[in-house]
């Protein structure tokens, strides 16, 4: 089911086919939401597992409607992709995240990184590279502190086109993380060609590590793969201390999850960073 969900709007339109009116309603509501600033970005800290200090944060989109209801990104992002609105929304997220990065740098968090999710539709749009360069130039954000998260499923289609695009993206100085790594089927040689800097272990594999089959866990394989290829690794969705300590023992450098911090607004992040000694 997870794979289907992630495969994007094709499956979305099929599975939601019966509910086309609801989809159209959401599509209109999303356009209004975009115009009226009901969309905003929250940040979830990423932690160095050895020192337990924050090293960066992932930008995550939120939609709060006027009546105060939260609509989860898993529900509205497929619609944003399907309608093309993700191009504008994604650009806004990128700009906001870069502004936040500059703000944090000016507060003295000069090493802090921001990770930005990039949808497949956005990434493949002909203007993506220009948009990225413009946002960096306008905000003055340090490219070396920006990371773009793309999913493994993006990474599998039209490898040659993608690899060329990734090359150009990397020339701007930003780094690339493969999100939800392990849920797709990309080959190892292909992974090397992608020139990714970081792998993100999907939450489903983190949940698994406290189970009985931990000796052969996928999380452990990804951590070793990262080490062998010289890539950084982040475990996502770490919810309890047992998971954190197993990951640390396995040599996983970074983690993110409710155990450390939930996604938070910019103001909350500032306070949280002060309290947690970045
Ligand atoms: P993702 O990129 O895999 O993001 C991780 C999700 O796990 C986030 O859900 C985060 O809030 C949640 N999470 C973090 N720690 C924990 C934990 O310890 N336990 C549990 N159960 N969950 C945890 P969220 O914010 O609902 O986002 C869902 C998905 O929506 C994201 O999955 C990403 O694919 C997409 N998304 C969110 N923001 C954006 C965006 O700005 N652009 C694009 N293209 N996609 C986005
Ligand atoms: Ca992500
Ligand atoms: Ca993820
Ligand atoms: Ca995930």
Per-chain topology:
Layout: H1 2-6, H2 9-15, H3 20-35, E1 39-48, E2 54-64, E3 70-71, H4 73-83, H5 86-106, E4 113-117, H6 120-123, H7 128-139, E5 146-151, H8 152-156, H9 159-171, E6 175-181, H10 188-193, E7 198-201, H11 203-208, H12 218-229, E8 232-235, H13 241-249, E9 254-255, H14 266-275
Parallel strand pairs: 2-4, 4-5, 5-6, 6-7, 7-8, 8-9
Antiparallel strand pairs: 1-2, 1-9, 2-3
Helix pairs in contact: 3-4, 5-7
Bound molecules: ligand C2E and calcium ion (CA) (3 copies).
Protein name: Diguanylate phosphodiesterase
Organism: Noviherbaspirillum denitrificans
Domain EAL: 23-277
Taking the sheet with the most strands, its summary is:
8 strands, mixed, barrel
Task: Give, in order, the helices and strands.
Answer: HHHEEEHHEHHEHHEHEHHEHEH
Unreliable stretches (pLDDT < 50, length at least 5) are: 1-13
* SS element count, helices: 14
What structural class do the secondary elements suggest? alpha/beta
Task: Name the overall outline.
Answer: globular
Bound ligand species: ligand C2E, calcium ion
CA radius of gyration is 18 Å
Note the gap between the termini.
Answer: 38 Å
Kindly report the average pLDDT value.
Answer: 89
Helix content: 40-55%
Strand content: 15-25%
Oligomer: single chain
Number of strands: 9
Strand order of the largest sheet: 1-2-4-5-6-7-8-9
Protein name: Diguanylate phosphodiesterase
Domain EAL: 23-277
């Amino acid at each position: 089911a997870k794979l289907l969900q992630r495969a994007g709007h094709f499956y979305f339109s099929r599975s939601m086919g019966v509910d086309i009116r609801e989809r159209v309603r959401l599509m209109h509501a999303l356009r209004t939401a975009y115009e009226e600033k009901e969309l905003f970005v929250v940040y979830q800290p990423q932690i160095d597992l050895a020192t337990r200090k924050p090293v960066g944060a992932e930008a995550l989109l939120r939609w709060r409607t006027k009546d105060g209801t939260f609509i989860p990104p898993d529900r509205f992002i497929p619609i944003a992709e399907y309608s093309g609105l993700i191009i504008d929304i994604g650009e806004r997220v990128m700009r906001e995240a870069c502004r936040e990065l500059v703000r944090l740098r000016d507060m003295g968090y000069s090493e802090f990184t921001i990770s930005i999710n990039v949808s497949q539709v956005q990434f493949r749009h002909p203007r993506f590279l220009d948009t990225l360069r413009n946002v960096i130039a306008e905000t003055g954000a340090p490219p070396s502190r920006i990371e773009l998260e793309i999913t493994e499923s993006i990474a599998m289609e039209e490898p040659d086109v993608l690899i060329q695009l990734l090359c150009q993206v990397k020339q701007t100085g930003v780094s690339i993380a493969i999100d939800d790594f392990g849920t797709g089927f990309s080959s190892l040689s292909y992974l090397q060609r992608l020139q990714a800097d970081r792998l993100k272990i999907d939450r489903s594999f983190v949940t698994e590590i406290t189970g009985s089959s931990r000796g052969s866990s996928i999380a452990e394989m990804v951590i070793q793969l990262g080490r062998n290829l010289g890539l950084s690794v982040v475990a996502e969705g770490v919810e309890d201390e047992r998971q954190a300590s197993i990951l640390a023992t396995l040599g996983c450098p970074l983690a993110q999850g409710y155990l450390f911090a939930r996604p938070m607004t910019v103001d909350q992040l500032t306070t949280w960073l002060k309290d947690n000694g970045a």
